[in-house]
Amino acid sequence: MSTESAPKRRRVTRSPSPEKYYNLDESYEPYVPIAQRRQAKLAKLSSLGAASDKEKAKRAQEEADERADEEREEELRKEKARRERTLLMEAQEVHNRKAAEDAQKTEVEKAEEKDAEILAAIAARRKLASDLELAKGIQYTEPLKTSWRPPKYIRERPDEENRRLREKYHIVVEGEDVPPPIEHFQDMKIPDALLKFLKSKRISMPTPIQLQGIPVAFSGRDMIGIAFTGSGKTLAFCLPLIMFACEEEAKLPLVKGEGPVGVILCPSRELASQTYENILQWTDALSREGKYPRLNTLLCIGGISMSEQSHVLNNGLHIVVATPGRLIDMLEKKRFTFNNCKYLCMDEADRMIDLGFEDDVRNIMSFFKRQRQTLLFSATMPRKIQDFAQQSLIKPVLVNVGRAGAANLDVLQVVEYVKQEAKMVYLLECLQKTAPPVIVFSDNKNEVDDIQEYLLLKGVEAVAIHGSKSQEERQYAIKAFKSGAKDVMVASGVASKGLDFNDIQHVIIFSMPKEIEDYVHQIGRTGRSGKTGIATTFVNMNTPEQTLLDLKYLLMEAGQKVPPFLLTIDDPRAVQGGSLKGCPVCGGLGHSISNCPKLEDTQRRQMASHRSNVDTGGY
Ligand SMILES: Nc1ncnc2c1ncn2[C@@H]1O[C@H](COP(=O)(O)OP(=O)(O)OP(=O)(O)O)[C@@H](O)[C@H]1O
């Protein structure tokens, strides 16, 4: 509306109207003068006074009820508080009692309790058996039967004589009805053709692990075989499989699509290749004279083309030597089956069962359709792994030559303190100690490459091998080194376990591995099959103290010279008066399970949280 067009009005001042200042809805209360209000109140009061006695009594009752309710609530509140106080006091008492008990416990006892808790958590691991067997509750109770028997004179030999023989060869056995030790290959009923071949390789008398292990395996028994590096374990588990395969082939020849009858599992491709080569030599020697059948063996490892071995798969297959990954792949693709497989051997078994491979092993076991003979071999086998493995074996026999994890006594161990920056130069000097071949170990792949480069620059013929190299590079390095074309092989842990190189003169450990078991395997590349060798190890302030302690005790156990800087390291357990048992997880003598380098940090953390959950009732 335009102000122009509106009619002009006179501005009038008026008192504000109720419409302007108040909202005229139900809430509007007109003004009541005070005298009028007093009048109304009096009237109301007098009407109240006139209320019936009944209503008064009712109101009084309600008030009494309310008061009673309040009192009851108050009582309950007090009772609850009293109970809470009692519980708190009890908890406090328990806490005080526990604190007093703890205060009385020595540090050693506390440490032992903690170790026991960690061990219990490890023991709770799932049994090492196929999921199918576990699910169906299949449990075999008797070992497999074989037709092999020792000669009569050995069968009739008194137990006392068997015990004496074991003592003579430092063999410790555990288990029921352990088959007798046999001192001569001939008495093991090994075919002449094979004996002749072994003799040509200067293998004429069985080593301790062979003289007890082969009769155990020939008898069809499950076994755990532990003996130091280079003591001939490979023959001890391959020979029984070869003889078993011969027997099966003689009974009913295998045709395409049938077999294998036995499998050997290895933790690395290199070790599997080496075992495969050995089996080829031994089976060739057997069949050469025509009395024994030709056996087909398949190498089943990653990084190689399987089509090259199609001729093996086109015939009946007797033996498979494999690494877990490729084996599972082949089984899943049904390139062969384990329907008739009755022999499973795991070389370097502690590694196979160890955290990384445990599930693969279970998976592989689930492909077996019938009872099998299971054998586990290694130079290092901590008690905990032995116990764990034993639950999965049927009436197993433990054959132990020397302490599991002990160093080979044929290796002269030298430990030197070398500053980090001086290592390369000192390595050159060290290489002069012996003639080639020499292996240099470092667990760091980059360091392996650096060392090789440095040696090549200095004119040393060196090859290198580690897990990041291609399979061809790895094969080339091993071939060149084995053939003597190269003097030095620089290697990471991959080459340490089980590899059998001819007459290694010297092993140089450029970087001390954290786990003492790895050290034992690494120095074990020299001093094999009765020869002697030298191992030089560089340590410095980067080497963890507990590793140095493990090393110190290992040197002492092997009667080696302990350098002064190792002698000065005190063992906290000894200082506290604790017992100096080997770690049940890695076998290291210088620490307990709670600071075992092998128990990975994450696992330790998991266990700690398990413990605190139990402590606080958190489950
Ligand atoms: N009875 C024997 N007499 C002499 N030499 C043997 C005998 N048995 C095996 N050897 C030789 O000893 C060497 C080491 O054998 P093998 O590789 O089986 O040792 P290992 O115990 O498996 O060692 P590692 O623990 O390092 O794997 C091989 O060269 C093998 O030919």
TrEMBL record:
This is RNA helicase. It catalyses: ATP + H2O = ADP + phosphate + H(+). Residues 1-84 are annotated as: Disordered. Residues 183-211 form the DEAD-box RNA helicase Q domain. It comes from Gloeophyllum trabeum (strain ATCC 11539 / FP-39264 / Madison 617). Residues 214-399 form the Helicase ATP-binding domain. Keywords: ATP-binding, Helicase, Hydrolase, Metal-binding, Nucleotide-binding, RNA-binding, Zinc, Zinc-finger. A motif (Q motif) lies at residues 183-211.
